[in-house]
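Pipeline run #58 for the internal structure catalog. This entry was flagged by the ingest filter as a single-chain record with no existing model, so it goes straight to prediction. Upstream metadata was stripped on purpose; only the residue string is passed forward. Reviewer on rotation: M.T. Logging verbosity set to normal.
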Amino acid sequence: MDVKLVDADVEGQSSVGALIGYAESTDISRCSSDGTVSGQEYVVGGLVGEIDAGSLSFCSSFSIVSSYGISGGLVGAVSSGAVVSSCYATGEVRVEVRREGDGSSGGGLIGFSQGSSTDWVTVSSCYATGNVSTADDHAGGLIGYVDNTEIENCYASGDVSGTSYVGGLVGRAANNTVVTFSYATGAVTAEIGYAGGLVGCADKTTTTIRDSFAANGTIIFTGEDATPTFHRVAGFSYTNQLTNLYANVAMAVGNVTVTTESNASGVDGDSKSITEDFQSIAFFSDTQWTDADAWSTDVWTFSDDDYPHLNWEG
């Protein structure tokens, strides 16, 4: 499959995508779309609405995506062992709600990811640059909500905003979620609840976050009636499986710059400089990482004046 859609204008109810609405056990490769994709209900993606099993590789979307439930810059929702690799999305993602309590989930790449305990979803070597906004919970620069999902070698640079569970990379990391070798740089804004530079909330003890960094400039609280839980890496964490995590030393969290935290196994991470560390070849070749696969030159390209980029980007 090798398809390029230009100036698409697609509107539907649910399971809406510029190329495919719903794909089951289907392998999709080297496809792209741009334009606008919108849905009046749940599950809308810039290229594909839903993927159940199957795979998506070397695909992209430049589409603006909106819905009243779940929106993803590339895919609305993935499940049942789906594999998404070497893909990217650049379009803005918006999620509205019709009624209070309806719920929402928006991600720059994927809106909602839910595997099973025996058949995880894998997202690897992907990135998203579009801004993400949700009128309710679950907003992530890469993925809004994840469950039984592994994320590795990914990044997100768009600004992210929502009510709660807002993260620069992932909004909410639930059961059996693993995040490794990944980073986020966009501003994070939440009204109440949880917000973090990398993950808004890691709300299960089975979640693992390691060998990653948050280079965001700000995490902002806009609400008036509730006390937020904001931290530089993870807004809140029920897990102690946090390892080798780093954060921008100049990051402003709730209008306060956090400079004293130096715990690479904590929700605020160890303080590092953007220019001297995150944009430095030496930082990623250091021995501080968990294993030899961390920040591999087989996957990443490093420089002394920019963040790491994936090799396949060219």
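catalog note: The two ends are 22 Å apart (CA to CA).
catalog note: The longest helix spans residues 274-278.
status: ready for reviewer M.T.
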